[in-house]
Amino acid sequence: MGNSRVTVREIARLAGVSVATVSRVSNGTGQVSEEMRRRVLEAIEKYGYRPDHLGRALAARRHGALGLVFPGLSGPYFTELIQGFESEAVPARASVHILCTHLREDSDDQVLEMARRVDGVAVVGGTISEPTLLRLAETVPVVVLAGRGLETVPAVSVDNAPAMTTLTRHLLVDHGLRDLVFVGNPDGSPDVSERWAGFQNAYHELDLAPPTEPLRLAMQQHDGVLAAERLLGGDGPAPQAVVCANDELALGVLVGALGRGLRVPEDLVITGFDDAPMAALVSPPLTTVRQPVRELAAEAARLILNAVDAPGVAPDGIVLPTEFVVRRSCGCPAGSPTGGTGK
């Protein structure tokens, strides 16, 4: 029979891991190394720990709700995030309140007001200011989703820079391309900033001079069409490859290139990031980086729920691995192998 007097924090201390790790092992969810899993299971078995997740969680919560803060809701990326977040919140009997700031001037005030109605908040990186993020964390558990954390605020993110370096090196080394353009705006977006840095790093690793500026556009498909107009509609030569900060941009560039009679990849190489469902369905299929979008949000919800259940225990941040997905839009033949970039 389980020992109700042993707490999750005591198991974490005995196993030498975080509370979040104990929760992932006992729930059978998330990514945990075999060594950590073994230590947690040994402590659970030795001390007879049997968590009453639902009862403890319901007792700890005041509102029975979690918050999600997005800059906007357009595109499949945010749909995937919502579904991943709800996959953890709903079984825990927590409703999900979504706030879209649209980067308004009063975004910070809106988020602080939301914190009065929820037990914890996940904020997409770059959506609110760092001082407000710290103020928010003094009120409720907070996790940065797809961005950079702060000293007291953990983050759930992916290995953006190494992944983009891998993709860019593939174009530079395996295909011998040199005239590459990065499309996406690093300003205000931690994800895009890291991908731009990874793009440049691939050049540096090969002792090549990288482009000094990206083509700064937003992240929606029509922005990709606009990118194609700017890059392909002038009198100067077109680039050899367009490296996009996400798949929506890449799909827009593909539409624009094909509309101008260009062949992809023969006349222009196009790559993306995310591996959205449409990336594998267009012709040619899109070379991209697959990131676990749903798992990003699910991990954020788990961290918040754990923090609510065990107040005062600072959760660890999480970096999830990605996978480099090679398809025909970069010039590789169909069926080329993919390569992981995970940590």
TrEMBL record:
Instruction: Please name the InterPro entries in this protein's record.
Output: HTH_LacI, LacI/GalR-like_sensor, Lambda_DNA-bd_dom_sf, Peripla_BP_I
Domain of life according to the entry: Bacteria
Instruction: Supply one GO molecular-function term.
Output: DNA-binding transcription factor activity
Q: Name one Pfam family in it.
A: LacI
Keywords, in A-Z order: DNA-binding, Transcription, Transcription regulation
Would you indicate the residue range of the signal peptide? Answer: none
Q: Where is the HTH lacI-type domain?
A: 6-60
Its name, as the record gives it, is Transcriptional regulator, LacI family
Organism of origin:
Micromonospora avicenniae
